[in-house]
Please model this.
Amino acid sequence: MGLVFCIGLGTLPLEQVVWSQTFFKKFDLTPISGEYLPVGERAFIGKTWPIPFLWETLAFLRLGCLNCEEISEDISDPVRLVWRRISLITIGTWNLDWAFASSPQQYSEVLNAQRADLWVLTETRDLVCPAVHQNAVHSPQRPRDDVRKWTQDSRWVSIWSRWPLEQIPTEADPTRVVCARVSPSEMQPFLIYGTVLPWNGDRLYRKQDKRRAIERQVEEWRSLIKEHRDCFLIVIGDYNQGMSQQKSLPSETLQGAIELGLQELNMTCLTSPQRVGHLWPHQMIDHISVPNEIAAEFCFETAWLADPKLSDHGGIVVSLRLS
Model:
């Protein structure tokens, strides 16, 4: 028989697990499929497992939303199998560079292959649509302040979700931000704040205004946290900063403005090199930040490099446990 993969036993913290193809290969986990699995779910069965406190038993791990009723079953003295009720979400972000290098369908195929529950796409187009994500909210149509790769359906940010979305009004940036309340069934609701933050060569802002533009967004994050106390806030998108450790003072750089804002709000950038550099050595400027209280319940899922045939950015996907 295969081996049960249990989460929540206390011996194996969730943050120590890496959800990736490398992980499954390392522990001899094989993907399986069947009619009992909902569309978009993935299951794995383990043949062997090196952790001694787990007994050889059979169970399934579904990435995405895994809700198991609490069940206890004696397996062998003194080993006891416990299925804990958990709630996992898998979220990803990718800057498509306006989806200009190839057909929209090819970008959609990349997204579909990742099977995330929710996507935040930046520099995107309406024609790029993940197959199983029927719910979407968008920033306004991209203004023609930059004619580079402009199309009528291009937008700075779009959120695509398998769960219902309620768009939340924002004011910090009228074109490069969109926010939504996400309400999965049997799970705590959360806010997704999709953004493209100013960069050093950003022509929309004067040099002295770029830092203030970031600080306005931080102020909006603070307001959203206060107004939606039943939700976690997740800030995700193109930060335009590597978020690696800097020698400069935080008060002197755009990245410093982001870092100070996250610190003030007790949030953590999950995708900084300090946290995932050993898993993904290539520096990225697209990031995901969450409250400190759920930052430990984080699993690196996958990432991919920029491909000149598609985009000058790579994408990243992570999993989080909300309860």
Notes: The chain is about 20% helix and 30% strand. Residues 1-86 have pLDDT under 50 and may be disordered.
